[in-house]
Design goal:
Length: 236
């Protein structure tokens, strides 16, 4: 897979840093401090131009407020999560919903469906309504298109994501239990037809047993590259 000037770094679990050809830093599903798979050198990440949150679970937004504070970057999420973060003192929030697109210079960030829940763990341990779970399609300045699926099961409308945005590279959860396992993720690949897949959301907790090798086996003979990164590993 050639990203033509972009770099994707996996920070463990569902957290990614995308450095775009135009030099923008996009952080997806920030869970840095407290993420057992986030490399030490990224835990105090202090550069971001946009912070994307797919849904309200702690393992996808646990570091969002801190990172927003350190960087001043806008936090892009569904409307409900944006309102929650604003109530917690985050100043720069962009609440949106599925089908909407936010631009960052020449970069397009589109919110798409995910089949998952989105409750927010409130400060007193209660679960707050967090809207619906989502994924993001990000089209970079050079036209390379990424799809971060968030947490999701496979769903048939992934075929619409394929038709509308034709993602070159799909970041897909494979751990199972809370999301797709390799079986469902392999079906998702058949709907999305990306050139490459980066597996995520596995191995962090004991329950997340799916492996990139299992996904690779299920996709034998398909023309898709499975890129199994180590936390801190990069794809360019
Ligand atoms: Ni989740
Ligand atoms: Mn999760």
């Amino acid at each position: 897979m050639k990203l033509e000037g972009a770099t994707i770094t996996w920070l463990g679990h569902a957290t990614f840093l995308v450095e775009t050809p135009g030099g923008k830093h996009i952080v997806m599903d920030p869970w840095l401090s407290g993420n057992p798979k986030c490399p030490e050198e990224y835990q105090a990440l202090n550069k971001a131009d946009a912070i994307l949150i797919s849904h309200g679970h702690f393992d996808h937004m646990g570091s969002a407020a801190d990172l927003a504070q350190r960087t001043g970057a806008p936090v892009i999420s569904n409307f409900e999560i944006g309102s929650y973060l604003a109530s917690q003192g985050v100043e720069n929030t962009i609440g949106m919903n599925k089908g909407g697109t936010v631009t960052l210079g020449d970069i397009k960030i589109t919110m798409v469906h995910a089949d998952h829940s989105s409750g927010i763990s409130g400060p007193d341990g209660q679960t707050l309504y967090g809207g619906e779970a989502s994924g993001f399609v990000v089209t970079l300045e050079n036209g390379v298109t990424l799809y971060h699926a968030g947490d999701t099961n496979v769903f048939s409308d992934m075929a619409i994501i394929r038709d509308l945005y034709a993602p070159d590279i799909a970041l897909l959860p494979i751990g199972g239990h809370f999301t797709m396992s390799p079986k469902e993720a392999a079906y998702a690949v058949k709907l999305l037809k990306p050139k490459a897949v980066i597996p995520m959301h596995y191995g962090t907790f004991d329950a997340l047993t799916g492996t990139p090798e299992a996904l690779q086996d299920l996709l034998a003979g398909e023309s898709v590259e499975v890129i199994a990164l180590q936390p801190g590993g990069q794809c360019r």
